[in-house]
């Protein structure tokens, strides 16, 4: 199909939404009939193409997905600027199987998250069962079938990282008369299924890079990237024999029963396979910085796969500091990054702010820092819409007004990442905001983590250096970009964890990373802090306490929705729920 994919995808979403208002069904309903969608006389497969595009709409969107908040606001990286939001159920430990912020409707879906993924899987199975009726070219049919199978595997991945093993439907399209009370497959079986699907379809997918007319569709690179990520999680401490469950059956549902260090080699092999594709690169140039340009350009050699959306200025209006007004619209400043996150960014020389010789000054805390800090977080003095951000007490962006509807930063910071290049502008304009699902930087850091766990620490350092070089860290006299010579495996593990934290902030990695590494009990019980700034000839910076999260081990895995367990007694609920 030679139409722009993202426009067709929008059409598919409209059709889906327009038929989602029925209160009951006498038989399974879809917006299309099989006869209409899979027409043996439709040589161009126009309607079948719409059906395939509609499957993409079931992919979660990471922008403020949890009832208007980023999932990272449920980690140590941020808090919502608004009080009493649902995403804080995670940090307060008040999530239940009946009240999971990710499962509540209103997150951009008409279905719960569990049901949304299984709806996508059902759509994929319907497509696969009927596409051979449509007389499109053999090449088109090959691409379409591989796309549908990839998307189905991707939905299973979204389920796997939340719940562990889930019922695998295969190619079956169930009807109302069928027994759909299926038991959960084990974690190992679910991993094997996803990896098998990626291996089966990858060579039949579009080569990288996809053409401009097919922009937004998955390619071979996406299949290998999904494989790499699934294997990374499978090798990680929580899933690789490190489950907390006391029940052996439940432990097998949410991870491997025993540890196998060789699982890290599979991650390294997936990187080698991805590297052989030969197309993807870290972005090394762009305006205003290479790092920022990755997130505001529709097409990038670093983006492997992204959730497509129309160009808007919604993020700018929702996330910019509250003192800015553009086109008579007041910015909302809905996200407050923590001081904990800000402190994680190293200095320009690559040393941590507490390292000897780093050059960090508590009286000028934003000077000489990793350029990714200013690309991720609005801090006091950063230029935006042609004026400095004022997050000091009483400043335009922290006015401390009283009133029930007042929203302002709780930490002294606002979210900058994903926003357009508006530092010297006077207003916003529509900007590309495609949420990155896979990007090349992740593949590199996956590889670095695997190499380090395999004892190949110095090889891992070389991969970390690639990320830091692109980020703007100085090479230093030894060209190690701040990584100490002779660094130990344990210390590099900590450094890689931190590098993932700052590189992927607000991309929905931190929430899952602290779980798979099994560091959540330490991370999510520490004091989350901010800064109070007193303006003057020399501003003063005082740390403030914002909140202290609560952690319970059951939060390692999400609860299967209560209604699903009621409907299907064969679904074993995760431990603690």
Q: Could you walk me through the main structural features you see in this protein, from its secondary elements to its overall organization?
A:
Helix content is 37%, strand content 7%. The protein has helices spanning 5-18, 34-37, 46-56, 88-92, 113-130, 138-163, 187-201, 220-235, 248-254, 263-275, 290-296, 314-319, 339-344, 371-376, 440-453, 457-471, 489-503, 510-516, 520-523, 562-567; strands spanning 78-80, 303-307, 325-326, 329-330, 335-337, 377-378, 383-384, 387-388, 414-415, 435-439, 528-534, 540-547. The protein is mostly helical and 577 residues long. The chain has a two-stranded antiparallel ribbon. The protein has a two-stranded antiparallel ribbon with strand order 2-10.
**Global mean pLDDT:** 92
Number of helices: 20
As a whole number of angstroms, the C-alpha radius of gyration is 24 Å
Helical coverage, percent range: 25-40%
Please summarize the sheet with the most strands. 2 strands, antiparallel
What is the total tally of β strands?
Answer: 12
Beta-strand content: 5-15%
Q: Which strand order do you get reading across the main beta sheet?
A: 1-5
Low-confidence stretches: 1-29
Shape: globular
Category by helix and strand content: mainly alpha
- Distance from N terminus to C terminus (CA atoms, Å) equals 46 Å
